[in-house]
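Work Package 3 committed the consortium to producing structural models of liganded targets before the mid-term review. Because experimental data for this complex are still outstanding, the team generated a predictive model from sequence and the ligand definition alone, so that downstream docking and mutagenesis planning could proceed in parallel. The input record is reproduced below exactly as it was submitted to the modelling pipeline, together with the SMILES string for zinc ion.
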Amino acid sequence: MKIWIMFLVVLALIVGLFYEIRQTQKKVDGFDELIALNNNTQYAIMGEQVRISHYLLGHDHAHPVKACNECGLLQQLTIRQIELDDETVRLSELLIYDPDNQANKERLEEVVLETSLIARHLYSADERAKRITAIINQSRK
Ligand SMILES: [Zn+2]
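The resulting structure, written out as tokens with the ligand in place, is given here.
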């Protein structure tokens, strides 16, 4: 009888221990999520700090800074613009030899439209950056 009671007590302790381990594991998982969230926030703050520093220097899409978030986006647009320029040349050459090719005509219209949208986006990004630089410099006086 005594041995059964001891067995039940040990069993209860083991079950309790496993429960405790599971609860601790859940807490650790929660901490991991918090740390990951904190890292994301820190990364975003650092990116914004680099961006503000770049604004102080005079942000210009033609002179990208490696760690600047905005420069990264603008560089992607610039790369896309180069691809579109190449496609414009290729399509124009094709249309010289086959001026009635409707598919090439339509594609050329799309490419020209996308090129002008990107050019407008790059221009407005530079203009916005100039205004922000002016505001930052004014507030520092
Ligand atoms: Zn930048």
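Reviewers should note the following from the model. The chain has one domain: 2-140. These observations will guide the Year 2 experiments.
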